[in-house]
């Protein structure tokens, strides 16, 4: 690797080590020393890549948020061309990603307090994605509601449902697991009855 590639690889290792540290110890326990050790670098080297610990922590959620969006988009793209199937793909894609990326759970539930800038960016990214999805379905005549202001509220309601359902059903014995089948079925029944024509 050339110098730029080595630098990028080191930066990626630092971010991965930070994600691991936050997932295991929470934001408060993710010290620079712990992160540097996890990345296999000297503690002082950390500052060649990040101005401060807070700057790094604020970049974690947006990075994982992009991965989440990519995962859900892929699930939606594989779904049948049907609004209900697309919404099922969104909710099941979210739960799958959460199961496969367990550190996201700690980041989502602590980020609002320990990485506010990153948390806000994550919320904005996810909100924009849901607004695009609702606009797509409304344009095709699939929704009961078409008012853009009300669709923004609906998007936030669906995001909130994901958050609270995962908090209640996806953490078992210290592990992040898929929710029981009836959780997705109940969510879908509720959303289909209230949202889709």
Automatic annotation (TrEMBL):
Residues 8-68 form the HTH tetR-type domain. The keyword Chloroplast does not apply. Keywords: DNA-binding, Transcription, Transcription regulation. It comes from the Bacteria. Residues 31-50 bind DNA. The keyword Transcription regulation applies. InterPro entries: Homeodomain-like_sf (IPR009057), HTH-type_TetR-like_transc_reg (IPR050109), HTH_TetR (IPR001647). This is TetR/AcrR family transcriptional regulator.
């Amino acid at each position: 690797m050339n110098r730029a590639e080595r630098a990028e690889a080191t930066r990626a290792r630092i971010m991965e080590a930070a994600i691991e540290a936050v997932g295991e110890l929470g934001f408060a326990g993710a010290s620079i020393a712990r992160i540097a050790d996890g990345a296999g670098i000297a503690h002082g080297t950390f500052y060649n890549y990040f101005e401060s610990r807070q700057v790094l922590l604020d970049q974690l959620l947006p990075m994982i948020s992009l991965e989440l969006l990519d995962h859900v988009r892929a699930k939606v793209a594989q779904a049948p061309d049907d609004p209900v199937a697309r919404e099922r793909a969104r909710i099941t894609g979210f739960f799958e990603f959460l199961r496969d990326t367990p550190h996201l759970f700690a980041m989502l539930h602590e980020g609002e307090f320990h990485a506010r800038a990153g948390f806000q960016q994550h919320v904005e990214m996810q909100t924009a994605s849901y607004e695009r999805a609702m606009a797509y379905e409304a344009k095709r005549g699939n929704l009961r509601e078409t008012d853009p202001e009300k669709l923004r509220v609906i998007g936030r309601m669906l995001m909130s449902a994901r958050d609270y359902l995962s908090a209640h059903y996806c953490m078992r014995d210290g592990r992040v697991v898929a929710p029981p089948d009836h959780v997705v079925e109940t969510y879908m029944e509720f959303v289909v009855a209230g949202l889709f024509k």
